[in-house]
Predict the structure.
Amino acid sequence: MVLMFADTASAARIKDLSSIKGVRTNQLIGFGLVIGLAGTGDS
């Protein structure tokens, strides 16, 4: 089951997924980093 959907995972920009209404039309820029604690992941 997991292998069947492995190719459909992809990255998406936040501005493509969201719509923020306000006074100005600013670009939304950000960075994300996902990490784990040592010794708490898969073994």
User: Anything to note?
Assistant: The mean pLDDT is 67.
